[in-house]
Oxygenase MpaB family protein
Amino acid sequence: MGRYDLRDRIAALDPEKDHLEIYQISSGREFPWDYTRALEFALFRTYCVPSISKLLAATGEFRDRPQRRYDDTALLMAEMAAHGYDSARGREALKVVNRAHGRYAISNDDMLYVLSTFIYDPIDWLARYGWRPLHEHERLAAFHYYRAVGTRMGIRGIPDNYQSFLTFKHSYEERYFVYSATNREIGRYTVELFADWFPGFLKPAVRLGVRGMLDERMLSAFGFDPAPQWVGKLAALGLRTRARALRLFPPRRESVLGKPKRNHTYPGYPSGYQPSDLGAPPPPDDLPAEFRRSSRQGQGNIDMT
C-alpha cells in the first residue's frame, strides 16, 4: 500500500452514509495516537465549564479513581468506534454510558457541548500536528459519527450540519469558560493523572508541558499559571517533527481501535471483558440533591435497560 492510499479510499466514500468506516480508518489506522491525545485534551477542555466540574467534584471519582474514570471513558468510546454503535458491543457500551449519565442531573446543553469537543478538538489537533491534512470527508464523517452517537445517548437539539455545531461550541465556550474552584480542582487531578503515566523524575516536566499546551481561555478557566512560552513552542516543534517523520512510514495495515497495548485499570482488556464490566459506580450516598436526577426528569430517548 502507498502512504496515501487510505486517504484516497476515504475520498471515494460518502462522509454521511459511510461515516463509521471513514472514522474507523481515520482514528484507527491513519491517526490513532493523535486521536487518543486529542480526545484526552478534549475531555480536559470540558472541565473548564463550572457546571461540569462541580458535578465531577461532587462525585469524588476524580479525586479517588481518576485513572479508572479515564480508562472507562476511553474504552467505552473505543468499543463504539471499533465495533460500531449499533453492534452488540456498541449497544452494550452505550447502555453503560447512558446508565452512568442517567444517574445525575446533567443539562442537555452540557452534554451537547461535551459531544462537540469529541468532534472538533481532534480536528483542530490534526490541523496542527497531523502527518497529513485531514480530508474533508474525515471532518464531515467525524461530525456524522458523533451526531449518531449523541442521538443514541438521548442528547437533544444536535445541529444538523457541521458548521452550526462548531458555532455552538465556540459560543458555549465564550459564555461558560469562567474560573471556578471546582474547575481548578478537577484540572489539577487531571494534570496529576497525566503526570502519573511517567517516571517520577519526569513528572515536573509533564506538568509544565501540559500547561504549555493549554490556550489562554483554558488557563484562565482553570486558574493555572501559564508555562513559559518556550514550553509550548518546544512541544509544538516536537509534535510537528513527529508528523514529518510519520510521512515516511508505511500505512498501518490493521486498526488499533479496541486493541489497547496497555491499560492501567484493566490489564487483560480486551480479552475476557465485556463493555458491561466497565463504568462508574452508583452515586455516593452523600451526593447533594442538586446533582441527583429525579424520577420525573427524562433524558431524551436514552435506553436505560
In short: The radius of gyration is 19 Å. Confidence is low (pLDDT under 50) at residues 295-305. The chain has one domain: 5-263.
